[in-house]
Amino acid sequence: MIVHWQDIKGHSQIADSLKIMVAEDRLPHAMLFSGMAGVGKFLMGMAFASALLCEKKDGPCRHCPSCMALQNNVHPDFFVLEPEGKTVQMIKIEQIRQLQKEISLSAYLADKRVVLIRNADRMNENAANCLLKTLEEPVGNIFFILTADNEKKILPTVLSRCMKIYFSPLSDTLISDIMADQNIKRDKSEALAKLAGGSAEQALALYENGGMENRLAAFDFLKTIFSFTDEDIWTLADKLAASGREKFGEWLLYLQLFWRDMAALDGDAECMKLYNNDMKAELMQVKADWGITAVFAACKYVQEMQRRLLTNADVRLIAEKFIIDLRYLK
Questions:
Q1: N or C: which end of the chain has fewer CB within 10 A?
Q2: What is the mean pLDDT of residues 208-232?
Q3: Phi-psi group of 25: left, alpha or beta (phi > 0 → left; psi -120 to 50 → alpha; rest → beta)
């Protein structure tokens, strides 16, 4: 797939800087695009790679042999590496070793080779150390573009070999515009944009997965958790486990956003900068049942559950412990 600079929403300053680098041929050997998930890092990496491989300096032109090959996903000098796995997705050392074999040859179609590593923060330590050798001693005219949601999870020695570019969260207006391009009604796109926390990917996922309904389910839970019986806990834990990790993670996100709004309202009852501003009256009522100490404790619990969801831990046990811990906060 070829991506043109004009295909990217937002981050115009970053795009302009990358264009200048390509035009002036002053390119770092490796770059790291970091920032929260769903803000356009990978898309920008694709646009940068498209420009690097194009035969014209102001590319991608979409017409040269290199652009045509990229558009048809058959470019011999472009390599994309992504995490693999059914439950926990990681970039493993076998993938890096295979990549090293493939890039050991000279460029075939373009005058350079480009490697785009998506979610480089999901490399295990062995894979990262293996990649480090290639970054330290590159063979031929080759460029690495790494993307990461959390650069702190990348090996420091790998980080030190990369030029870092940070991608900030997208504005609610821009996310709403992106969703409107997908023929999503403006009123719904605006509500989802506020919930997405700066991530267009998250906003679209919430829309496609019935996110508004899941938000209401999370709010109902907030209203009733302190009166949960043991049977209620087991029933909900079963339901959350059956919904799958992604849906459970989304439910946790909604709870997290509700608690953040409660904390904001505790400091300023007139606060309008809420994730769930359309439910402000309902939040004020529920906040009275929680108390700020319980809200802060709940935020810590949900962060721990989000981390555990990224492991192989049993989803039902995660849900069960979470609900029990919350029930006893009051």
A1: N
A2: 88
A3: left
